[in-house]
Amino acid sequence: MKSVQGWYGKMRSAPVPFLLLAVLAVAALALPAALSAADNSVAVLLSGAGAPYEETLAGLQRHLKDKGVKANLAVHQLHADAAKAAEAVKDIRKKAPRLIVTIGSLAMESVLNESSDTPVVAAMILKADAVLKAPNATAVVLQIPMATQLRWIRKILPKAAAVGVVFNPAENQEMVDIVLHAGKRAGLRIEAEPVRSPAEIAAALDRLSKKVDVLWGIADSMVLTPQTAKSILLFSVKNKIPLIGPSSAWVKAGALYSLDWDFADMGEQCGEVVARILQGTRAVAIPVALPRKIFLSVNRRTADDMSLHLDESVYEEARTVY
Fold first, then answer.
1. Fewest C-beta in 10 Å: which of 41, 49, 291, 295?
2. CB atoms near residue 25 (< 10 Å)
């Protein structure tokens, strides 16, 4: 304390030029930190609104704050509007941020369609094909390892022998090939029914009704939509074939269960990647990752209606029970 007071006393009695030089010296010491914060500009594009987007963004912001990462985030809400996305990307390119975080497929596609050296971190996308082809991007992909999914089928429905899947081959043939292989290794028979239009779904379900114990709803933009939800859920109830939903919203509507992503933790994963890139790591050098955390949602009423006596531990492990 004495040394500080002594220095302050000398400063007060020093000539004005000396005082000016001292002030400038102190300012110069603080300048690099201020510049580093300003230079670490991060553009964040949200494809749409809703809890998953908000939770992912909040997780990203929380990680950067908790770890003391200096980054200026500029958030752009696209509201699922492709025209707005194009405008936002043009604006972002002019501002030249250090990196871009995209949350959702529309944001990712809009950014990667514009060639640039700016690093990109993508989140909330179902497939990493576009990211893997880009020389400046990495991602946290919305996929749950197949072994994990099959393990939960075995746990919740141990008597199930055959699992039905309805899918659009143009979108999900590769995924179904993986399911077929993984199911065989897990001792489950996978009955896959390809459809090329929504009009074919009813017939595919009818064929499956005679040979499966459970229907697995893999993410598919043709098969699992708000327009098809009612007919698929009615099929499940009528035939007492439980549906594994693609999300907790489907479980709330009547599917037996779903495995969901922890979007807040996914945001934190993105925050870790952002921090590494700001510290100098190239985005392409960071492997595409899967979400670290998932949670279970179960519909007890559906289980009771179908006379499925689930082990009580299933309900205890679930984050949400309807």
1. 49
2. 9
Task: Give the residue extent of every domain in the chain.
Answer: 2-36, 39-143+262-291, 146-260+295-321
Assign domain 39-143+262-291 to a CATH class.
alpha beta
- pTM confidence score: 0.78
Pairing of strands 294-298, 257-261: antiparallel
Strand order in the sheet with 137-141: 72-77, 41-46, 99-103, 120-125, 137-141
- Note the helical H segments in 113-212: 129-133, 146-156, 169-185, 201-209
CATH fold for domain 146-260+295-321: Rossmann fold (3.40.50)
Whether the Cβ atoms of residue 154 and residue 186 lie closer than 8 Å to each other: yes
Q: How far is it, in rounded angstroms, from Cα 318 to Cα 307? A: 19
Of 172, 317, 179, 189, nearest to 259 (Cα)?
A: 317
22: amino acid identity, one letter: A
Q: What share of the chain is helix, strand, coil (3-state, %, to 5)?
A: 50, 20, 30
